[in-house]
Amino acid sequence: MNIHEYQAKELFERFGVPSPNGKVASTADEALAAAQEIGPDNLVIKAQVHAGGRGKGHFKNGFQGGVHLCSSPEQVQEIAGKMLGEVLVTHQTGEAGRLVRKVMVAESVDIDKEYYLAILMDRESGAPVIVASTEGGMDIEEVAESTPEKILREGVHPLAGLQAYQIRKLASKLGFAGDQAKAFAKLLSSLYKLFISLDCSMVEINPLVVTPDGRVLALDAKFNFDDNALYRHPEVKAMRDTEEEDPREVEASEYDLNYIGLDGNIACLVNGAGLAMATMDIIKHFGGDPANFLDVGGGASKEQVAAAFKIILSDPNVKGILINIFGGIMDCNVIAEGVVAAARETGLELPLVVRLEGNNVEAGKATLAASGLDIVAASTLADGAEKIVAALK
After folding, report:
1. Where, in this chain's numbering, is ATP bound (predicted)?
2. Separation in Å, CA 252 to CA 63, 132, 199, 249, 258
């Protein structure tokens, strides 16, 4: 789950991570009021969408940039009017862009130096790792490619936690000294407490800045949370903005289905994440393009399967469907009943290939055969992939 920058500021304030004062607005008049409250000048307005590269982005109405420095509340109001209700296109959104429903008005601070700072879960070690660089304010991927030696990594023991010597080590390598080193230490300690307390999978500050008066501030932030731990944090779950997400993924989450939309035309319905990945791979191997990742889980009900079927059919790019089920806990006949119910309800006319194997497979095959639907049976995963690719050709 992602959150907006203005919500990140709320979490920073809660955990004592220093950040410039800011307020969210949904209308130009609200933006004006926020700007008047924050200060008469030295203001910045930022479009609030779940995408990076906002400053270099452009709006489909011709207005350039999703981040602007402003010298007066009236200028904030004017720019808010050009952003709100318009579509912002960045390198991360693609040409479709994102509709801007909110803007954040914040104090603009003078900057002496920009840094990059992030805490994330390292999959290889299964523990948190701190990533930092003196090259802040730019894409970290670009830094990693052009000057990888400027990226610092510091692993954190999951039980011992972040140690004082590790903070001093990072501060030294980043060039902090004296009061600035103390300010950085306080910020990083608070940030790590936030990361652990809220079950984050990533907290990224880009840039982390030092001001002429020596303050160390988190200027821009991006959060990711472990979805499996959100039940422990209802206040964070309430920050979810479903309007920023693919509506198919939102609907899938309501049925506890794992769905991610892709660009291909062969829809997949599979039980198990690993099997779903293998199914996508073998479709590519035989010359096809998967339209989605869809894992219905190990114990899906007939209703969940029917919902999954309808979700993949809501994608207009889908021209064929491959169902690949290996029944362990899952009952193959439950899958078959869900497929038949959904196919009848939607009036399915697309090619449908089904491969069932495992628990109660004979009953599942019998249910499909007795349905009277035009379903192509496959004996193996490779057989199913070949058949669905051939059907589309």
Report:
1. 46, 53-55, 109, 114
2. 35, 36, 23, 5, 7
DSSP 56: T
pTM listed for this prediction: 0.74
Q: Are residues 251 and 388 in the same domain?
A: yes
- 151-162 pLDDT, tens per residue? 999 999 999 999
The answer on whether 220 is annotated among ligand-binding residues is yes
Helices 273-285/381-392 angle, 10° precision: 50
Residue after which a domain boundary falls, among 219, 237, 255: 237
Q: Do 223 and 2 touch, CB atoms closer than 8 A?
A: yes
Which of 6, 86, 115, 116 is the catalytic position?
116
Q: Is the peptide bond before 207 cis (omega within 30 degrees of 0)?
A: yes
Domain membership flag for residue 381: yes
Query: Is residue 319 situated within a structural domain?
Result: yes
Is 94 labelled a binding residue?
A: no
Q: In sequence order, which residues have a C-beta less than 8 Å from that of residue 387 and are 6 or more positions away?
A: 353, 376, 378
